[in-house]
Amino acid sequence: MYAVLSSGGKQYRVEAGTTLMLERLDGEPGVAGAQVTFDRVLLIGDGDDVTIGTPTVAGASVSATVLGEALGPKLVIFKFKQKVKYRRRTGHRQHMTRVRIDTINPTAAKKAAAKPKADAAEAAPEEAAAKAAPKAKAAPKAAAKVATPRARKAASPAEAVAEKPAAKKPAAKKPAAKKPAAKPKAEE
User: Is the pTM of this model over 0.70?
Assistant: First the structure.
């Protein structure tokens, strides 16, 4: 069984017994031996049976044990601008938390998925009536909004502009080109 969980803005594919280096966890869990539960589970897979969350799987969780804290790999930031002798070299090492995945708990996800299928046949007539009722109530409100004076004022200038035909501009006249003056012929 495996799961995809989200922590620190990143997604990790985990199985029971694997160790992970995560972004530093907030609060007390930095102490070795502390128990941590991840409830942002995006996907759970068990062989061919895959449950995908929208965006998370409801009720699913992953429990883990904190092994300790460490520093991540060194990241070098180098800024450079050509032709002006500008160079800046800085860097840092991110604080990380090392955890071991103990168990993946998909129990609530499977129960929740099984219940709606059984209840769907019973609740279908009730849901159809409930969905139709709000639509009937919404129609008079929409008609009332159009009838307000503010709506009439906003609609009238647009209608007035639409009614007026566009004015035709006369075609621009090009100035007549001047003819070159004829040179008198030299007498022979």
Answer: no
